[in-house]
Structures are given as structure tokens and as C-alpha cells.
Amino acid sequence: MPEILDVIGRTPVVRLRNLTTPDEAQLIAKLENANPAGSLKDRPAWHIIEHAERTGRLRPGGTIIESSSGNFSIALAMIGASRGYRVVAVVDPKLTATNRGLLEAFGAEIIVVDEPDDSGSFHKTRIELANRLHRQTPGSFRPDQCFNPLNGQAHYRTTARELLAQTRHLAAVVCTVSTGGQLGGIARAVKERAPHVKVIGVDVHGSTVFGGRPHAYLTPGVGLSWTPANLADLSLVDEVYMVTDQDAFRACRTLVRSEGLLAGVSTGAALTVALTEAMQGKPRQQVAFLAADRGERYLATAFNDDWLKDHGLTTAADPEGLRRRARQLVPHSTRPADECANHLPDLAAELGSPTFVLARSEWR
Length: 364
Ligand SMILES: Cc1ncc(COP(=O)(O)O)c(C=O)c1O
Known about the structure:
With 364 residues, the chain is an alpha/beta fold. It folds into 2 domains: 4-34 and 152-332, 3-Layer(aba) Sandwich (Rossmann fold), CATH 3.40.50.1100; 42-144, Rossmann fold (3-Layer(aba) Sandwich), CATH 3.40.50.1100. 37% of the residues lie in helices and 13% in strands. The chain has a 6-stranded mixed β-sheet, with helices on both faces. Strands 5-4-3-6 form a 4-stranded parallel β-sheet, sandwiched between helices. Helix 6 links the parallel strand 7 and strand 8 (198-204). The relative contact order is 0.16. The structure holds pyridoxal-5'-phosphate (PLP). Pyridoxal-5'-phosphate (PLP) is lined by residues 39, 41, 70-72, 176-183, 221-222, 264, 266, 292-293.
């Protein structure tokens, strides 16, 4: 009989019925929200912790300290509960009541950072504090999802290989970006095993993973103010798109109303671009995206009309509106490695993160 952590991964894929027409490519969603703690982050969280246990960096009764206001710390909290580790989540004021409730349900401790960094977001101050706490806490371990290449390796070894085995006519795969784990890992596997498959990254306006001007945005789970180390080789990515908050929220609402698939806001961002690609594709071709987390996490926000109106967002959930928008979208870059890389190679050291390097032979 498997334990809870044994059922991470091997998620199903489903074909969408209604958002595309028969003369377009098929949309395929990989249901990462079927993971036990509810998101794609279960994979890297367990991959990193398992590696730390194996290499003696995390010992029985140890403490896991991580910067994450969302799915990654929820996944770590599940793992901590199952394996007997204390989990400390360093979060920011944008932590939703739902995510706080989930972290507390799993027994994690929460520390809130309230000082924004130079980009106006909290990523850097959160990472810095997590590193400081780690240095001060004997027996602690920092998974460091932003700088740890095992994050991408989890998706390289599992998510991407599963997706390639589960599809027969895959033409493109679309991933949103924050730490770059899913896009970096999937891109590497796809370009090694099925190089004809187009790899497309999606960021949200206001985030500067692919350059641009930083400003506040509402889409949770997506974005960073630099190109993450897990995307060190941007030449593996064929195209990147920028979507708006409106796009992401409208698409996740449309997805549940027209397909019965309840997923979060970042899934809407990916779906918008996957639809753009599918509408330009041919019948029988498949365009895949990840249903990244459970929609229940957004009942008080994306699925609450009053919240949407208060935040100036549409309450629309109509396939025609989504298709119109998808038809208008054009890539932000078709040569991201040359045109819009925003790497900050010294940042890990500046924030006090250990430098992780995986030798080529360790990727397999
Ligand atoms: C719901 C959701 N979607 C997308 C992402 C982005 O994935 P990655 O960090 O692998 O780039 C995250 C990351 O936290 C997430 O929680």
C-alpha cells in the first residue's frame, strides 16, 4: 500500500471538449492539481527533500525553512507532516487566508515578511530572511526553490516524461513561470526527447522574468523580478508570451464553466496562450498545459464576483471572449535567449543562498 508521498506525480491528462473547434489543435491539460497537496509543487518539494535525506543534509526531526507564500510551502508542509519535520514558511502579506489555513492545517509555522524589495515584490526579502533563519537554526535545511536546480530536475524526470508518454501528437507545451522549475525542466526534457515540440513560456505583465517594467499584478503563483536560475538555458524555450491579470482570471473562470475543470489562476494564464497556439494548429495536433493547482484555493478571489469587481477585473467566463483574446495575442519574443533574458548571476550570493550546481551527468 503506498504512503501519501508515494502518490505524488503520475497525474492524468485530459482533452478539453469545448474551447477549440474541430479544425484546430486539441487542448490537453495535465492535472497537476490531482497531486496530494493539490499542485505541481508536490513534485519538486518531494524531490528536493528526498535528495536532502539521502545526502544527509536533512536528518530526522530537522527543520525545513522555505520562502513561499503558496503551493511550494503547502507541499513542504504536507511532507513535513508525513516525515516528522518542522516546517517554517516565510511568506509575505499577499498570503491568502486559504493558503494560511492550509499551511496551518498541515502544522507549518508561518513568518510574515512585510518589507518589499527593490522591485516592489517580496521575493528577495523573503529569500534573504529564510537564508538568515537557516543559518541561525541548527539542523535546518533550505530547499531554496528559486536557486536549486533540483526543482527543474523534478519536472525533467517526471512531469515532462509523463506528458510525452501520455500524448501522441504533441505539437506544443505551454508553461507559466515563477521559479522556472516547470518551464526549465520540461523544456530540457522535451528538447532532448522530442525537439519538434514547441516549448512556450508565459509570464504576467508586471513581472519581469523576461524583462520589461515592473508593476504590481494580481495573478498568484506566476512571476519573478529576474530570469530564474532554473531557466539558465533560455535557448530551450522557443517563444514567450506576456498575459494580463484579466486574461489569467477570465481564462480560469472560463475553464471551469465550459470544461468542468476547476483550477487556479496561473492555469488560466497558461490556457490563454495554449488556446492561441491551438487556434493556429491543425486537427489531431495536441497543445498541452498544466492545470497547476486546485481551484478551491481561489473561491474567495477568482471565483468571487465581488472580489473581482473590487479589484477591477471582469467577471466574464465566456469562451467567445477568451477566444477573441487568444486570437489577438502575439509572442513577446520568439528568441527569448537573445532578446529578453534578465539573468542576475550574482543574486543568489547577494541574498545569502548557497550556490547549487548539478553536473551534466546528474541530470539523467
Ligand atoms: C499555481 C502555480 N502556477 C505556476 C507556478 C510557477 O511554476 P514554477 O515555479 O515552476 O515556475 C507556481 C509556482 O509557485 C504556482 O504555484
